[in-house]
Design goal:
Layout: H1 2-16, H2 22-54, H3 76-79, E1 80-84, E2 89-92, E3 97-102, E4 108-112, E5 116-126, E6 135-142, E7 153-159, E8 168-174, E9 185-188, E10 198-204, E11 208-213, E12 216-222, E13 237-244, E14 264-278, H4 291-294, E15 298-299, H5 320-332, E16 334-337, H6 350-353
Antiparallel strand pairs: 1-4, 2-3, 3-14, 4-13, 5-10, 5-14, 6-7, 6-13, 7-8, 8-9, 9-16, 10-11, 11-12, 14-15
Helix pairs in contact: 1-2
Length: about 350
């Protein structure tokens, strides 16, 4: 901007103070001052556009069916227990919502009362505002408590930033302990996640895993032969946490958590836990105490087969509108995919090149 102003000022000076009469100079001065004001206004608008665009363009998502409307929303205390950091968890609105808090003393988290083998899982989250570098808010599924060496995991991780609006959304998954192969994909959001609640949804069944934000699919992992060996296959808990990820979360650890801005509060509501609930079973075989989990029996809340997220027809593959939404999200908002990272993977994981 200063470059343009300097040039403009130089041109004005030569034009106004050239060899003209006094009256001519006054008229020239009046004209150029008016013209200069106009140009500077345009330059100011241009600079504002540049400042906004450097924070990432904001697009309106396409119209799409709302899968979250198919299921009842639960209160937080119906679906979750305290996972850790109980002193940093506040139940609000008679338990229909909750605040999970990160401060210098601790992070905090909630864990589902049941374990699920496939299903549809949603949480509406409102994230902390202001300077949130190093802060991680995670909504994810895991069974690491039962399978510490070959656990499964499906992750939403929201990574704080040194700028208020620029939270980054990261998705990832592991199957059968495949933690050495990160399958991360990263996205900029098309909204400010600190101003209101937004839905983050995981659909997991034998056909595919689908990550959705406000019902817009952002990532689909199809269950095919290329990924079958690392496809999550055992019952998992649903967990929501807030914690200190200073070592890696923001620009690879460049910006740690600044506790001068604490406490960092995430509010959760709009819980949906719909799927195959793992039934508790007694197992007398001490040498194989995980066998009942590997072949679970389950119960489902859904009475209508078409609305069954495990086997329902509407949950086996993407609709036309969902495919449009997926393409929109990935073209306009995804900025990293492990399948494009040839520096990290000299040989790409097999699912990246599968047809």
């Amino acid at each position: 901007m200063f470059f343009f102003i300097s040039i403009f000022h130089s041109i004005n000076s030569r034009a106004i103070f050239g060899p003209h009469s006094h009256k001519q100079q006054e008229k020239k001065m009046e004209f150029f001052l008016h013209d200069r004001k106009f140009v500077l206004t345009k330059l100011l608008i241009l600079c504002m556009i540049v400042v906004v665009s450097c924070r990432g363009p904001v697009y309106k998502p396409p119209e799409i069916e709302k899968l979250t409307d198919n299921f009842s929303r639960l209160s937080v205390n119906q679906g979750y227990n305290v996972f850790y950091g109980g002193s940093n968890i506040r139940m609000t609105n008679n338990g229909s919502s909750a605040d999970i808090i990160l401060d210098k003393s601790s992070g905090s988290g909630l864990i589902s009362k049941d374990k699920y083998y496939y299903g549809f899982f949603n949480a509406a989250l409102k994230l902390p505002a202001h300077f949130t570098s190093g802060v991680v808010v995670a909504f994810y599924m895991s069974n690491s408590d039962v399978f510490p060496h070959n656990h499964d995991e499906i992750d939403f991780e929201l990574l704080g930033h040194e700028k208020r609006r620029d939270w980054v959304l990261q998705t990832n998954l592991y199957g059968n302990g495949s933690v050495h192969t990160g399958r991360e994909e990263k996205f900029y959001l098309w909204f400010d996640p600190t101003l209101d609640f937004h839905d983050y949804t995981i659909l997991w069944n034998n056909h595919h895993i689908l990550f959705l934000v406000d019902n817009v699919p952002i990532r689909e992992v199809v269950h095919n032969t290329a990924i079958s060996s690392v496809y999550p296959s055992k019952p998992m808990s649903i967990i929501v946490t807030i914690w200190d990820g200073s070592e890696w979360a923001t620009h690879g650890g460049k910006y740690p958590v600044n506790y001068n801005y604490a406490p960092f509060v995430t509010t959760i509501k709009g819980i949906e836990l719909e799927g195959c609930v793992k039934q508790q079973q007694n197992n007398n075989n001490n040498n194989n105490n995980n066998s009942s989990i590997l072949t679970p029996t389950c119960s489902r809340r859904s009475s209508t087969s078409s609305l069954d997220p495990v086997d329902g027809e509407g949950f086996m593959k993407l609709s036309q509108k969902q495919m449009i939404g997926l393409d929109w999200a990935r073209r306009k908002h995804m900025f990293y995919s492990y399948c494009q990272d040839t520096k990290r993977y000299k040989v790409l994981p097999p699912e990246c090149t599968a047809k």
